[in-house]
């Protein structure tokens, strides 16, 4: 047991020592500034044989944390981020304890000053370590003990015999409180390219940014008390979230704060250790009380114990402030007769009171009504038009209030508010069965007030009027039209917001952008509200028409699983169909040739016997659909492979044309047609067709070439051709598109007895390059 106890004591001793072995200690705590013109702790410039000697004194008040410590390294801070220190330079550092506060007005003798100092560093500065721009550590070859209570004189000597490739600058302090800007005798220096003189001839109040490594012995006594600098003792009108500051004290590891509402009290802070800092801010989340006197003590602490007998300061917090009123503006005119008064929240307030009267300070309209913890109030009934009202908003909590606050005024408009000035008076709109909006409702915001404080969509709402509609489908389009200014401003910026839920408990569904919006995800039979508003202050009012339309249902071919089949013809016009994408949605299938596309519809087509095929879209007169994208796929829905994609190859404006070759006859391709989404076009009608010249003989060849006959039809084993002399090759294709027989240089009697019963397409490839296809039936 005794051995274990001894080991524990040794460990405690080691830990105690480590607590007081210093790392880099920054002497000054002011903002650092770069002086890169007059002088430098190391000249390090592009002049050969450049030399610098410097001496400066650091007051003991800035060295408390290394009292009686052994300084093992000195740091200077470099400001230049590039360039290496000269290999041909030498740098010396001397340290000395001194009672002097400066070097006086005479030029100090270098030999005398350094003769009584300790040379702690004498080497090439390249041996310093640290970041390129930042602190450079100069490890001492001789340690130096700093005596507590002494000032510290620092002497540096830099000599370079060759020029630097580029100048390197070092950071300097030149601001109070770390530097006495009125005493230039604290820093002396001389710069030369010749031999050093005997004295330091130049003065400056600047001082290099400096730091030390110091091994500081553990304290043997408790620290002395500190002095609180803020809030000042007996201060009044102090913030409820004040920052308490105090002076640093030697041999201190941390500070303890006691605070209460009575002398010596600790009901606010009871022995709270805030660490080795010199300030503590009361958190905003837990502010002090208004109009309350507080007592505070800051007690230095170390491993020996806490300071004793420390002085307690007192301060009194400010009274609860008055709310900052946002609207109506001071002395505003043209204010709605049902106005909303709004204000900013006051920290620590739990409620607000409102007084309104028709005379300054009067209360004949609202008499000091407790509104609760809110930041706005909307009058429940209309005020008189063209009347000036005076109002005051005050704040309070359980222990205090803001007292008398500023009386503000506003004058109401001469116009009475519209009946639908609030949600409860919303006007019911007729829902149109289409997008034509045959039924519209006229409205006007003139005289309206702001009935919802929160900004809903865009701008800063000034007033609003309300409408409602009962959804008849899952999607409706709300639109404003014929917007005309009716106020003192010519601006007609208007927006609307669609909301669900009952008045007073509503959720925003959609915001306009700016005067039309599609509202999706609606529940048929449910009532929705539309809040129409202008913004940007008094005078911004407008009349308008509002309507609710119903988009058409999506087309049957809005998805890959239900494509519209296309019949392949010989030319575009043969089997072209007029179709539409109105009501369609984008299904997320990627396009390889145009990413700005939307609202696609689907088609299918069977590849003809030739293996070649064109798929093309064209315009429809009067349609607003003006630009298409075609994407052709093979495979099945959910596992598609892109075959081809085209944006604008059709000869018809910006419509598309896909030309396919080498396709498998009889294979089914899926075709997705998109509308280009970045243009000015909208959804609407367009034409689409699939065609191939190999099918021209079926119905499109000219009568002059369509004079060959096949007989008998139906046939048994032999099919006769009326004039075989014009035919070079015959191909027979079944209805799946598969070529089942080819006959070169045929005779007029085609032997087809080996075919199965059914329908066939017999294509006669003419010697002049044309084709004729005849439908035949094998008995």
UniProtKB/TrEMBL annotation:
Keyword entries, A-Z: Signal
Domain Fibronectin type-III residues, every copy: 324-415, 461-553
SUPFAM superfamilies attached to this UniProt entry: Fibronectin type III (SSF49265)
Record bears the keyword Protein transport: no
Signal peptide: 1-21
Superkingdom in the source lineage: Bacteria
Pfam families the UniProt entry points to: GBD_T9SS_assoc, Por_Secre_tail
Keyword Signal tagged: yes
Name of protein: Fibronectin type-III domain-containing protein
